[in-house]
Amino acid sequence: MATTRHQLPELHDFELAAASTAGAAAAAAPAAAAGDGASAACAGGGSATAAAAFGAAAPIVAAPSQNPAPATPRPQPEHVPLQQQDEALLQRLRHDAALLLDADLSALGGSPQAYAAYAADIRAEYQPHYGAAAYAAGRCRVLRGFLQRPELYFTSRGRSQHEAAARANLAAELAELEAVAREVQAEEGGAEAAVVEAEAIASSGGDNGRDE
């Protein structure tokens, strides 16, 4: 049995081993509990004491200022009375209208050759519908109306660049058309006189025939 005793452990050997294992487990339990507590404190944002125990500094929170800086006021749009707004709008419209009118009248102030071509285009457009005499009389009225204006252009730039040339061109066309009108009237007057004379001769000849 001695051989068997040395080969197989006895009961008291198992008891000693169990007691040694239990002691080691009891000694390790407080350290594990402390480690778990420290881990929980770090993960959940624990107290400053736990953070300091593991070398972590507590967060520093700045205290709210007792005298905050005043907010910068927003600039307010300048209030313009309605009457001034209407006057400004009317002034812009007048300026735009003056520019448009001067652009349309710029053809009157071109070179004599350019103006002659412009007048010829107008005559070719209207004279076939009204005849030479009626066109000349109507066009002369239009030209006289232009020349009677104190100023042809509505802006200072238009007057300085085109006024003198436009008046010269209008006056030249007016003189030409007045000459044409006189010739037409003379022709029409001569024809009318010839018709009247022919009618008078025919009438007197007929009376003489009846008297005989």
Automatic annotation (TrEMBL):
Top-level taxon of the source organism? Eukaryota
Quote the InterPro entries the UniProt record gives: HD_phosphohydro
Q: What is this protein called?
A: Uncharacterized protein
Task: Name the source organism.
Answer: Chlamydomonas reinhardtii
